[in-house]
Amino acid sequence: MVKSSDIVLILVAIIFPPAAAAFVTGCSCDLIINLLLTILGYFPGTIHAFWLIYKKMEAEERYGHGGFICKSEHVGNGTYQPLHDQPYPAPANYGATNTA
Questions:
Q1: CA nearest 52: which of 84, 28, 88?
Q2: Contact status, residue 46 vs residue 59, Cβ threshold 8 Å
Q3: CA–CA separation, 59 vs 52, rounded Å?
Q4: What share of the chain is helix, strand, coil (3-state, %, to 5)?
Q5: Using CB atoms within 10 A as the burial measure, which of 22, 42, 48, 60 is most buried?
Q6: What is the model's pLDDT at position 68?
Q7: If residue 69 lies in a helix (H) or strand (E), which one and from where to where?
């Protein structure tokens, strides 16, 4: 599901791809890769920024918002893992219509 923050990231990626990479990954290897790709050509940097945004959106759908961390922070491979090993248990009577 695309959120308004993702749309803003896509617009930033179109205007200046390294800024979008910095917003998504922070100061990591992905930012350096994106800077180099943008210097080599605008379109490679933009494609890389779109890929980073896609991987972040995919992790948010899989693990929930804020429920993931980058698997290897400085490697630049765009993989994420869950923040918590086990999901939170559902509260008692969650989703039940019959309380008796």
A1: 28
A2: no
A3: 11
A4: 55, 5, 40
A5: 48
A6: 56
A7: strand 68-70
The token duo for 34 is 């994106």
Closest CA to 46 of 15, 4, 89: 15
Scored b (16 or more CB within 10 A) or e, 24-34 reads bbeebebbebb
- pLDDT at residue 74, as a whole number: 47
* Residue pLDDT tens, the chain, 100 long: 677 888 999 999 999 999 999 998 888 888 999 999 999 999 999 999 999 998 888 877 776 666 556 654 544 555 666 665 655 555 555 555 665 5
User: Two tokens at 31?
Assistant: 């930012």
Q: How far is CA 65 from the centre of its chain?
A: 10
C-alpha 38/C-alpha 40 separation (Å) is 5
Cβ 83 vs Cβ 63: under 8 Å: yes
Six token digits for residue 14: 């179109």
